[in-house]
Each structure stands twice: as C-alpha cells, then as structure tokens.
Amino acid sequence: MILALDHVEKHYGHFSLDASLAVREGCVTGLIGQNGAGKSTTFKAILGLIFEDGGRVEIFGKPKKELSLTDREKIGVVLGESGFNEELTIRQVAGILRGFYRKFDRERFLSQCRKYQLPQDRRLKEFSTGMKARLKVVAATSYGAQLLILDEPTAGLDVVARDAVLDLLRAYMEEDADRSILISSHISGDLEGLCDDLYMIHEGKMLLHEDTDVLLGSYGIIKADENQYRQLDKEYLLRAKHTGFGWECLTAHRDFYMENYPNLVVEKGTIDGVITLMTGGTDAPCGDAFKAMGPEREEV
Questions:
Q1: Which of 88, 155, 201, 214 has the most CB atoms less than 10 A away?
Q2: Cβ-Cβ contacts under 8 Å for 298 (sequence gap 6 or more)
C-alpha cells in the first residue's frame, strides 16, 4: 500500500475521528461524506498538520514520522484553505517551487500553465477561482510526486473549471502506472468518473468501502410500499429508511431484487443515493447484511 491508516484517532470536544483506509499503487481512492464528516481532519492527520490521538499512518510503507526529505518530496498536496501569495506571478511561483523541490521541472510547470490557460505575468489575485484551482494542481504535479493528496480540489468551481482540474489528474495518472491519488469531494460526478474505489465517512467513522465499479454496477435503491417491504427478503439490505410513501432501501445486490421481485422499483445505485441512505437510514431491519459485502470490505 502506498498509504495506509489504521484506526487513526483525533478527539475534539464535539467530534471524534476513527479512520482506517488504504490507497493502492496506481489507484485513485475517493473519500466522500457530508461537510463536517471528518474528511479534512483525516487529511490533516495524514500530513502531520494535527497530532493524532491514536492509530498509525504509513506512507510508502513507512511510519509517517520516519519519512525522509526525499519521501516527502514524492507527495503532492492540495488543501482547500491553502494557496500561494496572491501578489505573486506564476513565474515567481516557479522560482519558489524550484527552491523547495529538487525534482521540480520548471519547463513542464510553465508548459502546463500555458496548456491550462494560466497567464504567467499576471498576479494571482487577478486569477479566477477556477484558475487558482488549476494552478494548485499543476504545482502539485510538477515535481514527480508519486502520491497526490487532494482535499476538495474542485470545490466552488463551475463545470468547465472542474473538468479542467479532472483532466489534469487523469493526465497525471496516465504518465506513470505507479502513481496514486487520495481525493475528497462532495461532488459525486467527479468521483464516479475518476476513482477506482471509495470510502464513505460519517461523523468521524468509515461507514463503507467499495470499488466504484461495484457501487455503480451492483448497488441499488429499492422503493417499496408498506406491504412490499413486509414481504421483502431483507438479507441483502444494507440500510432502510421510512419515507412518506413507504420505504427506501439500499442493497449491494440489485440483481437479486430485480429478478425475484419484478414488480418492485429498484433503481441503479449512485454515490449521492448511497450517501443519503448510509447516513440517513438504519441497519436495524437488515440483520447481518454487511457480511454479504465480503470480508475484504470489513477491513482495510
């Protein structure tokens, strides 16, 4: 694993984090959840921006504290609240990056800035929000990083600006099969088209880990009235939520219910739908349904 968290804990007065996840080499892993769920706290623990209260973080197979300067230079970071001094120009940013990273490729950096329409002689305070977001990703990918850690890199961007950032990330992954990304976003469409697997965090706890293809291909949302719900085989339900018209249920076995209950409405699972039911539903009626997900999804 290029990155692994084993029960990393952080406790505040109103919030507690207990996070376990893993990022494989050559994969893009997404961390999804509502605002305040613990995404940014998890990222800060990984990067050493806060002191964790327990657990273990390993990067490149080493405990975080044992990373060398060379190891740290292989990590690219984009945080929502971070950025360059807005009085700088891109050419000045290039000079700063060259001073920090021994493998900084100035020509690549400036070429990428031109490609993504970032003017090199204007001050950053004149840039749009989308331009600043593109610049942060271009900078993070300009010195041969093997791992990108991106906290909401597309937040606040319009569709065109988001697509530009996602194109940058896809190009980064295509250049080297061993590169990896850990990315958080509340925009489900971004992650559906980019991530190999997804973790869902809620109130500081990891509720779900699943391959993106499996989530989109096998998960389903059942809509049943009271009578249908009473007759429903609940073995493969993950969550159930009572609504005004009856019940909404989440399953990882959509085909089972489509084949055995032909009159039942079973919609294709989406990231948004999974988030809604995993955080707003209950597993009380579902028995041991989580076991149906397989042991590989119960552990990192």
A1: 201
A2: 290
Helices assigned H by DSSP within the chain: 39-47, 69-72, 90-100, 106-115, 129-140, 159-175, 188-192, 212-218, 226-231, 254-260, 271-280
Structure tokens at 155: 């937040």
> Over the stretch 255-296, which tens digit does the pLDDT of each residue have?
999 999 999 999 999 888 888 898 887 764 544 443 344 334
CB of 59 closer than 8 Å to CB of 133: no
- Report angle CA 294, 289, 298 to the nearest 5 degrees: 35
Q: Which two tokens stand for residue 42?
A: 């998890």
CA dist., res. 24 & res. 295, Å (int): 18
Q: Give the model confidence (pLDDT) of 205-256 as tens digits.
A: 999 999 999 999 999 999 999 999 999 999 999 999 998 889 999 999 999 9
Report the first-to-last Cα separation within the chain, whole angstroms: 10
pTM of the model: 0.87
Q: Do residues 223 and 55 make contact, with C-beta atoms less than 8 angstroms apart?
A: no
- Burial group, residue 249, by CB count within 10 angstroms (0-12, 13-18, 19+): buried
